Amino acid sequence: MLAYTVRRVLAMVPLIVAIATITFVLMHAVEGGPFDSDKPLPPATLENLKKRYGLDDPLPVQYLNYLKNLAQFDFGISIANNRNITDIIRERMGVSIQLGIATFLFATILGLGLGIFSSLNQNGFGDYAGVFIATVGAAMPSIVLAPILTIVFAVKLGWFNVLSSDYGFTDWFRGDFSNWRQVVLPTVALGFLPMAFIARITRASMLEVLRQDYVRTARAKGLAEFAVVIRHAARNAMIPVLTVLGPIFAGLITGSLVIETLFAIPGLGREFVRSVLIRDYGLIMGVTVFYAVVIAFMNLVVDLLYGFADPRIRY
Amino acid sequence: MAATDQPIAQPYDFLEQQLHTKQRGLWAQAWQRLLRNRLAVAAGVILLVIFTVSLAADFSRTVQRYDPTVPDFQATEQNPSWDHWLGTDTLGRDLWARLLQGTLFSLKIGLGTQVIVLLIGVTIGMAAALAGRLSDTILMWLTDLAYAFPDLLAIILLRQVLLGRDWPIIGEGDPQIPGFNGVLLVTVIAISFVSWTTVARLVRGQMLSIKEQDYVAAARAMGASPWRVVRVHMLPNTLSAVIVSATFGIPLAIFAEATLGFIGLGVPPPNASLGSLIGSGLDSIQVHPVQLVWPTLMVATLMLCFTFLGDGLRDALDPRTRH
User: Fold this and answer.
1) ipTM over 0.85
2) Which of A303, A309, A306 is closest to A9 using CA atoms?
3) Which phi-psi region, left, alpha or beta, contains residue B78 (left: φ > 0; alpha: ψ -120 to 50)?
4) H helical segments located in chain A
């Protein structure tokens, strides 16, 4: 297990270096530098600026410096607002993580529940309702769902703020949930698609598992139905669900770009969109590499979770 | 089986003829199964109608009714009426015309992306499966790399790189203000470059398992050239999986484009894409919510229909995996 973990972490290194390299090449392939503006700067000023940000070195030197800094989690300085990118990421991350956790819990708990419920009522009314929600939900990305939810629940019913422009970050880990009113709509909008996805897979694998001999044995020895379903069936049905958690994490991250922009939530996703629109190359590179690391790490966590869910898997 | 009066020199032609009749039969059967799936047929018909109407609007002013890019300040933020079927936006532009323009753009993106995805994906998947161990290792590492790169970020980066350059087709004068077709082409290329991995893996897997089948060994034993084996026997057998994957790929591409358009990286401003329509609709959600309804409904309809069509195709083309 430990050897496997170490091997996987080491295998992440070339992948991340490759992603960082591609990002570096792409950013330098863009014609025109970050100091281009309508009014050309005096040559002396331009030279000083380039020196300040290390852009006057030859490209290979810039590349090596970039990698060296990356290894120390130093993403450089944002050209747009002259701040350390690592600081910006750290500052914006909290809100995004908060939204991510809420969405993830929403998607997995509801998705598993819906899937299990559907499988227990196979071909009954409850099953059809569940399958309908899962099918429609699979075609409802955040960009579609968010406007619908906003029109219905914020504009017509007035239950929530229309746009959480006053999104307040409160520390959930200290038990302060006072900003829940702003979290509900983004969470549902972002979490509905993965929820539908999880429900679909859970239903299919539950139907498979419920037919197994050990479930019949558990019933035969007189276990309560609840214990049979939860402890014997659902635990085994979880394994295929785990395989899709990796892609779901990646989807949550890209989805947060949209949702944070849509609901005006001051997180990392919105910061990325902003940095693209104003061509803040340093920040774009930093956030891209950061996201790549997070996704690679999450995939590793999911792979390790297999071992807990299925003791037959040995590393 | 083989008749004794068949000339021994060409047993392969005879068998091949048999295989071909069989193959056509399979496709006809799949078509029959697809027609029996009411949901898939309905989805297909709706998509066909949407595609025809939005294409017609591009050619004929009678269908389009108004110029989608020309503002009319006498008629801003109108609700649906006989003059403006879907109402007008903040600048008085007709929403029916803008919706059709955006829909056509999205459909072009979805279909165009799949053309490139299939070209890249099938080529790389085939090369990985058939061209030896080393190429397999290298190509699969490339695939893993493209898969690990955060999708939307890669699309945005590629788009910036391609648009920032003065390419012959894209840069119509000022590269800062790219033309309509330039954006279409660049967006298609950018989305394709992150979406080919699924098809490549699929084709590789299919090819690896088909390679071991008896009919491939038989064809080879009868003296068919390697290229002929691939073209006649292996490629057609991967086709059904590839078609299904392409159908599911279209809504993903449409969604990616809508996302780009929404965050302001869509078509150049006076033009409309579904994403940019949602974006501008959201800006005026409190005063004029109807502007947001149409593009949202259209994206949802397109995604639902392509998903149902994909489900139907999968069931029709591979009855064994029927759910």
Assistant:
1) no
2) A303
3) beta
4) 2-29, 43-52, 59-71, 85-120, 125-138, 142-149, 180-210, 213-220, 225-227, 235-262, 268-277, 281-309
Split at pLDDT 50, 70, 90, the class of A79 is: confident
Sign of CA dihedral A264, A267, A269, A271: positive
Distance CA A245, CA A194 (A): 9
More reliable by pLDDT, A30 or A6 = A6
Percent of chain B residues topping a pLDDT of 70: 85
B314 membership: H or E segment, kind and range: helix B290-317
pLDDT digit string, tens, across residues A266-288: 888 888 888 877 777 778 888 88
Q: Please name which of B302, B284, B300 lies closest in space to residue B95, comparing C-alpha atoms.
A: B284
DSSP B84: S
Q: Which residue, A288, A309, A293, is CA-closest to A25? A: A288
Low-confidence ranges of chain B (pLDDT < 50): 1-3, 171-176, 322-323
Of B89, B41, B88, B42, the residue nearest B279 (C-alpha) = B89
Query: Given an 8 Å threshold on Cβ–Cβ distance, is A30 in contact with B158?
Result: no
**How many contacts, defined by CB atoms under 8 Å, are there between A and B?**
114
* A253: chain B residues, CB-CB within 8 Å: 150
Q: Where are the alpha helices (DSSP H) in B90-179?
A: 95-130, 133-148, 151-163
> Which structure tokens are listed for A250?
């990646």
Task: Specify the DSSP class assigned to residue A152.
Answer: I
Name residues whose C-beta falls within 8 Å of residue B319's C-beta, 6 or more positions apart in sequence: B33
CA A167, A171, A173, A177 torsion-angle sign = negative
The letter for the amino acid at B76 is: T
Pair B165, A31: CB distance under 8 Å: yes
Cα separation, A101 vs A112, whole angstroms: 16
Judging by beta carbons within 10 Å of its beta carbon (0-12, 13-18, 19+), is residue B114 exposed, middle or buried? buried
Of all residues in chain A, the percent with pLDDT exceeding 90 is 1
Check residue B10 and give its pLDDT.
Answer: 56
| pLDDT (0 to 100) of residue A110 | 92
A253 touches chain B (CB under 8 A): yes
Class of residue B266 by CB neighbours under 10 A (exposed 0-12, middle 13-18, buried 19+):
buried
- Do B44 and B322 contact (CB within 8 A), yes or no? no
Give residue B322's pLDDT.
44
Q: What is the pLDDT of residues A214-252, one digit of tens each?
A: 888 888 888 888 888 888 888 888 888 887 887 787 778
Which of B147, B189, B263 should we substitute to test contact with A (largest number of A Cβ atoms within 10 Å)?
Answer: B263
Tokens standing for residue B214? 């008896």
Phi, psi dihedral angles at B94 (to 5 degrees): -70, 125
Radius of gyration of chain A (CA): 24
Q: Please, are residues A189 and A252 in contact by the beta-carbon 8 Å criterion?
A: no
Long-range contacts of A150-157 (CB under 8 A, 24+ apart): A150/A185, A150/B282, A150/B285, A151/B285, A151/B289, A151/B292, A151/B293, A153/A185, A154/A185, A155/B285, A155/B286, A155/B289
The interface residues of chain A toward chain B in range 134-193, judged by CB-CB distance below 8 A, are: 135-136, 138-141, 143-144, 147-148, 150-151, 155, 162
